[in-house]
Each structure stands twice: as C-alpha cells, then as structure tokens.
Write a structure and sequence with these properties.
elongated, 4 helices, 54% helix, single chain, mainly alpha
Length: 101
C-alpha cells in the first residue's frame, strides 16, 4: 500500500510539472528552451521535474496584465420580479385594494 501512495504522489508531481512547463510562456522559461524542458520532464520524470522546479521555472509569481477600467454602463433592465414597484402593485392588486370604482 505505501508503494501505491508513493507512486501516485510521484505521478501527481510529474503531471503538475509537465502542465506547468506547457503553460509557462516561452519568454519566462529559464536555462533551456521550452521544448527542451518538455522533453526533459517527459523523458526523466522524477529528476526532470525537480530540475524544472529548480532551474527552469520562472522566478516569482506569474504576473497577469491588469484589465483596463471599463466605462460604467447603464444598469441592465430588471425582470418584473426584481422591480420593487411592480411587486408592491402586484401585492396591492392581490389583496383587492384595487382603486377600481
């Protein structure tokens, strides 16, 4: 049983590193070109994954570009069940408080 858990842990570690190599932008990879890192991680699973984390992975967090501020749009129309005036009028009509003469 412990060997199965160790095998699953190594498989998980290897898959994490492989996906990390594949999703890292080319310009942020260190030491080797990205395609070579993929080959190293695929051909030498345990050692290649450790090498990737130590030598190839970008330093620091991945920086995502900030979205540009949007112009404030007018509010979308509400459905009848979200309109407080409609609900008050509906409640008044259901109680029979209608102003019919």
């Amino acid at each position: 049983m412990p060997s199965v858990l160790i095998g699953l842990a190594l498989l998980t570690f290897w898959l994490y590193c492989l996906f990390d190599v594949i999703t890292t932008p080319d310009d942020q990879v260190r030491s080797l070109p990205k395609i070579l890192w993929v080959l190293v991680v695929v051909l030498l699973p345990a050692v290649g994954s450790v090498f990737w984390l130590l030598l190839g992975r970008p330093l620091g967090p991945k920086v995502l570009p900030r979205p540009l501020p949007r112009e404030k749009r007018p509010e979308a129309p509400k459905g009848p069940d979200d309109d407080p005036d409609f609900l008050k009028d509906l409640d008044r009509r259901m109680r029979g408080d209608d102003d019919r003469g």
